[in-house]
Amino acid sequence: MRPLAVLGNVNVDLILGPADPWPKAGTEIIVDHDELRVGGAAGNSALAWEGLGVEFEIAANVGSDQFGRWLSESFGERAAKWPVRPEQTTLSVGITHPDGERTFFTTRGHLPRFTLDDVLTVLDGAKLTGGYALLCGSFLTDDLTREYDAFFDWADQHGVSVALDTGWPLDGWTIKNCEATRRWLSRCAIALLNEVETTTLAGLDDPTKAAAEIRSHMPDGAIVVVKRGPDGALAIGADGQCISVAAPSVKVVDTIGAGDVFNAGFLAALAQEKSLGACLKAGTEVASRAISTLPRTYGGPSASEDTAQ
User: Which domain CATH number covers 288?
Assistant: First the structure.
């Protein structure tokens, strides 16, 4: 199996809900569920890999408060070299709604101070040679994002294929954010996007045509994946052909981090050198399992292999 790593935003998620209707200002409501858990795109993908029994490395930083200590403890030895910043740890409060959607309130916290030096303190390029690095949280990790060119150079030097999931920009998909994302993707082997991101970046309404347009500006052999929620996922690979899979029908409990879990399932199968269709199937099935279970489960150590046959 090829080596795997993830780097980017790891923070604390406090999940509350469901809330319906949205409360009026100055009032209080009682909700049925609360959960304090590791969050952030990089954190969610790492938890999925851990649940699947997949070996990986994770590069992140934390704040200098009790939440930062808790995050480091949650990842044990994998977090031994994580830098501690003087800021408070980034906290996201997620309010869920009866239809499975959610609303987030997030503090800036420690994430903007994540740097390339922090990444290289944790990741060993020689050990990752021939593997995949999942790059997350582009619009939250300000210091690292400014050093993306140097990170891509490092990845190229060590033969590491970068898979990019930017996450949603805080100020929306402005012209500036679209241009930056296209520039980053020109250095990446894999794009992991949702349907809105794909069509917005390409300026095309059809997700298949949009994926093909994005791939035309990426390196030879690149893969563009479009995550379509309940409609499954599609991808265009090295041969230029579009492959799509349906998502299992499940009762949704909590969709938070669904795309991040998909990324983990997809890349775990890709690291096993499965076919592109099998990788899509693995991603959709692991994500579907995660969003339909409470407490969240991923299927155990055999799931990444079972769903990728």
Answer: 3.40.1190.20
